[in-house]
Specification:
By secondary structure, the chain is of the alpha/beta class. About 35% of the residues lie in helices and about 15% in strands. The chain has helices at about 25-40, 60-65, 85-110, and strands at about 5, 10-20, 50-55, 70-75.
Length: about 140
């Protein structure tokens, strides 16, 4: 069981089974098993249990299995993504790196009684000599892009 949800009025419990990609007909039995557990172990008088299977695709066999399981619904999900120009991604990455470097510098400087020197490795770098050091223009390796 991936999620067990309770309605606001506490009258219904919902067993949610999430599947990546296409759901097989076996997931109907799996969901019924979880619903049976909820019914016998968790349900209070006046409550009902329902199920929902969420997957990216369905096919004929799961539709046939679901036609015999009236208390289980089936929903599909869709994943969307967008393409961004590389320049825009670099701008965001540069802003993140500048913020991260400033935070490292502030945390490191606040914890030291004396200013850092260029010869000391940054404590955040785990001994990496090319990582950011307070007062230095060197940025962490993963920020060089």
């Amino acid at each position: 069981m991936d999620i067990l949800a309770i309605s606001k009025d506490r009258s219904r419990l919902l067993v949610v089974e999430l599947k990546r990609g296409r759901a097989s007909d076996a997931v109907v039995g799996q969901t019924q098993c979880y619903m049976g557990f909820v019914q016998h172990a968790l349900l209070e008088p006046g409550q009902t249990v329902e199920g929902v299977i969420i997957a990216q695709q369905d096919y004929l066999r799961i539709r046939r299995a679901l036609s015999m399981a009236r208390s289980i619904r089936f929903m599909t999900y869709r994943v969307e993504f967008r393409l961004e120009p590389l320049e825009r991604r670099r701008q965001r990455s540069a802003m993140f790196c500048a913020l991260f470097s400033a935070m490292c510098c502030a945390m490191y400087s606040a914890s030291r009684p004396t200013p850092a020197t260029m010869d000391e490795p940054c404590p955040v770098s785990h001994g990496n000599p090319t990582a950011y050091k307070p007062g230095c223009s060197v940025t962490p390796r993963w920020c060089r892009g």
